[in-house]
Amino acid sequence: MKTSPTRIAIIGAGPAGFFTAEALLKGDDRVAVDMINNLPAPYGLVRDGVAPDHQAIKSVARVYRKILARDEVRFFGNVTLGEDVTLEDLRSRYDQIVYAVGAQSDRRLGIPGEDLSGSHAAMRFVGWYNAHPHFRTEAFNLDCEDVVVVGNGNVAIDVARILVLRPDRLATTDIADHALAALRNSRVRRVTLLGRRGPAQASFTNPELREFGRLDGVCAEVDAAELALDDASAAEIEDNAVRKRNMNTLRGYAESKAGDGDRVVRFRFLVSPIEVVGSDGKVCGVRVERNRLVAQDDGYQRAEGTGAVETLPCGMLIRSVGYRGAPVPGVPFDERAGIVPNEGGRVVARAGGTEVVRGEYVVGWAKRGPSGVIGTNKADAAATVALMAEDRGAGIFAGSERDTEDDLARLLERGGVRWVDNEGWARLDARETALGEAQGRPRVKFCTVSAMLEAAEVHGSGD
Fold it and tell me: From residue 359, how far is each of 396, 406, 408, 441 by CA, in Å?
């Protein structure tokens, strides 16, 4: 009978990883959890994805902080699987491994001109204004009056809102300093959001949509003709409270008189971009085709082009059409679905297969694809953790028998890896919040790995 704690590695310290750790700690079994994260700071999308003016959403970090404070949990920041440690390293040291790696890449439009200068993925823009170290050097054309955002979800709405918010309001948030400086000099006055389907199918949530009606100096516009619903769309919203509220909000925007704002956010529906138009290698517009909805046998309303085309002028295009998982070295990957192939959370050896990889599991976006909100990951993690407990009871563990005398910390020390532990993150966190307090902000983020390691007082090779 196993008497020592079950050692569990969670790869990724975002919402899915923390909800997994929380569920594990609530279980009946004794566990010791190591959270391994490729960036020096934890919290994933809560830190790097949630818009800076939505601090209330980031309050979930208080729960994560309590989890990291538990004696059973160790943090290993600035450690990348496939570079600093191998999967075999983990299999020989842990009883169970959980992949909470999220979706690290973006989906493309697949249209001509998509790679012109001034055409960007929303993921990169969001990372840029949130001080993600990988995107701090991105350059965005804010020296234009018109921007087109392709997408009808909350990320698209966040991007549009950040582009039109008054800089003085952003100055009280934890937005990256380099982004705030650039936005202070922005000439953007109009942002158009494009949805390929109708308003009834839009996936944004209502509080985010309603917010445009309350922003100082901003006017929300909708063409009433684009809000007309066919019978199938009307039936689609009938029993969906969120979509019904969205329709009411959009109708309110369509019926309201032009506001006094000097910035406009325009919602367009039933239009798809078919070409990004360029001049001298730079974006100067986007050609869009009018769509109609065609009901499928399963009830899904598919957008189909009508042949009616128009060109919208813009100096920048941002696509927000979804995130996509990326392969992790040594870990099975479903190229078509962009996820780690799994059966309910148990990793399987290949997409479409049934052979389970012993002791390895997946949670969050890497498990189900990029869907839901932060809280969606809680039930998702609990379901996977239940399978993990079931396998522990059956004596099913990862890899070979682990070496308890040589844990991950010793391996990293021998390899000269500079990692951030729990105490190092506490120092980094304290430095950022102290800098923020001095400026009346929640925190001032360090936006390079070297600065983060210095604030965490991490020493080692490379100093």
Answer: 6, 20, 18, 43
Q: What angle, rounded to 10 degrees, do the helices at 231-238 and 241-255 form?
A: 120
Q: Where in the chain is the domain with CATH 3.50.50.60?
A: 107-322
Q: Tell me what pLDDT residue 117 has.
A: 97
Predicted pLDDT at 351:
87
CB atoms inside a 10 Å sphere around CB 184:
13
Q: What predicted TM-score, i.e. pTM, was given to this entire model?
A: 0.92
CA distance 95 to 167: 49
Q: What confidence score (pLDDT) does residue 405 get?
A: 57
Residues sharing a CB contact under 8 Å with residue 417, sequence separation 6 or more, in sequence order: 78, 79, 84, 460, 461
CA distance 458 to 451: 10
Tell me the three state secondary structure of residue 249.
Answer: helix
Q: What is the 3-state secondary structure (H, E, C) of 362-423?
A: ECCHHHHCCCCCCCHHHHHHHHHHHHHHHHHHCCCCCCCCCCCCCCHHHHHHHCCCCCECHH
Contact 116, 282 (CB under 8 A): yes
Q: Average pLDDT for residues 181-201, to the nearest whole number?
A: 96
What does the pLDDT look like over 95-130, one tens digit per residue?
A: 999 999 987 778 899 999 999 999 999 999 999 999
Kindly report the number of other CB atoms within 10 A of residue 300's CB atom.
13
Query: Is the pLDDT score of 189 beyond 60?
Result: yes
Compute the distance between CA of residue 97 and CA of residue 34 in angstroms, rounded to an integer: 10
Give the helix/strand (H/E) hosting 438.
helix 422-438
Where in the chain are all domains bearing CATH 3.40.50.720?
6-104+325-455
* Residue pointed to by tokens 């999308």: 45
User: Is 6-104+325-455 a CATH 3.40.50.720 domain?
Assistant: yes
Is-contact 321 114, C-beta < 8 A?
no
- How far is residue 166's CA from residue 293's CA, in Å, rounded to a whole number? 37
- Structurally, at CATH architecture level, domain 107-322 sits in 3-Layer(bba) Sandwich (3.50)
- Tell me what percent of the residues of the chain surpass a pLDDT of 90: 78
Give me Rg for the CA atoms of the chain. 24
Long-range pairs for 211-214: beta carbons < 8 A, 24 or more residues apart:
211/161, 212/161, 212/253, 212/265, 213/249, 213/252, 213/253, 213/256
193 has which bridge partners? 149, 267
Task: Look at 92-101, 347-356, 384-393 and tell me which has the smallest mean pLDDT.
Answer: 347-356
H or E element at residue 436: helix 422-438
